[in-house]
Amino acid sequence: ARIxxxxxxxxxxxxxxxxxxxxxxxxxxLRNVRRARLRAPADARRFPPSGVSAAAMPYVVCDVETTGLxxxxxxxxxxxxxxxxxxxxxxxxxxxxxxxxSTAIHGIRNEDVRDAPAWDDVGRRFWAWVRDxxxxxxxxxxxxxxxxxxxxxxxLRAESARHAIEPPDFVAVDTLRIAKAALPxxxxxxxxxxxx
Length: 196
Fold this sequence. Notes:
By secondary structure, the protein is α/β, with parallel strands linked by helices. It has helices at residues 5-13, 15-25, 100-106, 110-113, 119-136, 149-162, 175-182, 191-195; strands at 28-30, 44-46, 59-66, 76-83, 86-91, 143-146, 171-174.
């Protein structure tokens, strides 16, 4: 898969059923994900909030690809997002080499990002795009959806902090948790498996 294909495909085809599944299974949705272990009940709430239709809330489905799994040591190499037909997709120069093991997962090579802008530029434009999607829909709340959102959110926050970029507050919705609750019989809950 190339840059963000899975994220964009999920964003344009799957969220409405996943919202229904979240509502039916009463999956806990985590807010402002900031750490690796997501256990504290104080950070969770039911989704959607009472009196609010989930279908009416603006949501941004995103996917990041990285040089590895550590927010401290690794960097973002691409970010893709979809919201109501609008798409943001950018390669990011990580200013470090992409390990072969990471390229084997996402297909992004060092030569693909050599002339790409760094996160200092891409991050500012990405978060502005996310904010604009919410405002265009007449809402200031941002719902960020991703498969294994804890990873994406940690990487986005760490990369942004390194460049003094302040991400907006958002409600995080994890399609991985929803898929595990709704489709327990699957052999795994990777995006491709869930999508099929």
